[in-house]
Amino acid sequence: MNNPNSITCRSFNHKRVFLSLLVCCLLAASGCGQGEEAVIVDFSEVATEAEEFQAGEDRPRLRGAVSAMISPKETFSLYRDILLYISEQMDMDLEFVQRKTYAEVNEMLGKGEIDLAFLCSGPYVRGKDTHDFRLLAAPIVDGDHNYYSYLIVHKDSPYFSLEDLQGKTFAFTDPDSNTGRLVPSYWVLMTGKEPEEYFSRIIFTYGHDNSIMAVARRLVDAAAVDNLIWDYYDKFGSEMTAETRIIKKSEPFGIPPMVLSPEVNPGLSLKIQQILLEMHEDENGKQILDQLLIERFVVPQGSWYDSIRRLLDRLEPEGGENAQNP
Fold first, then answer.
1. What is the CATH number of the domain that holds 223?
2. Could you tell me if 236 and 151 lie in one domain?
3. Among 9, 189, 201, 293, which one has the highest count of C-beta atoms within 10 angstroms of its own C-beta?
4. Does residue 322 sit within a domain?
């Protein structure tokens, strides 16, 4: 990799803290009946200091971001290398930006404050409609350009279906997450109820790994998570996935893509796209992709994300309910 002095890095340091006692108190507290508002539980401690490395003043910068697909700490180590690889191939310095929520990254992309980002599929669809985000590339994992939502419970729990979870505690990830909120909300809606009345308590974890951990540690009864994240951890023998069990799998959805701000020059976007499409043919590029279990990048089709748009239409038929205010 390049010398750190050639990188501008605006990534917050995060120190993981497990708030078991706090969560248990929240779940056990009086007034936790059906219909209560969802609770936001942050499993990470955000430092106020940002890591800063001065980039060369005369070199152009590529501003890239990663939504909280795994967690702020994990996404930095796993995905920064892809953005750094692109910047090296482009002979540019990387300005790496990281934010906790999907909405924050969407807003920065829409304003042209960053050039490109890895987004969850749900926020991409919202951003496409609001800011005219442009699809750049999408990963192929296990030969598939789709991904899924897993409904998980503790391995020793007595629950084997969504119906078994009525009146139980549940974890969503981000309010805008497709697999972590939209899909399970739709499943519940099909029962004739809203999630807030179906579950006794809802928390937001802001990370699929946080949701897996919450179930593994019995902080909640169940959660919905991105299959790519659960499968990644399971492949490498994670204790978290070993303690959980999948009881439902969603229909396929278009895999989370890398997208461009509408402000990016078309010529620049074509160069970046070509680098991604050929990344698996380069020894260093392939090594990075292998670490993420990505086979290669391909040009995504807009139709891959139609099922998510239909899902949003069913959940918000008149565009009234904002996903950030469940």
1. 3.40.190.10
2. yes
3. 201
4. no
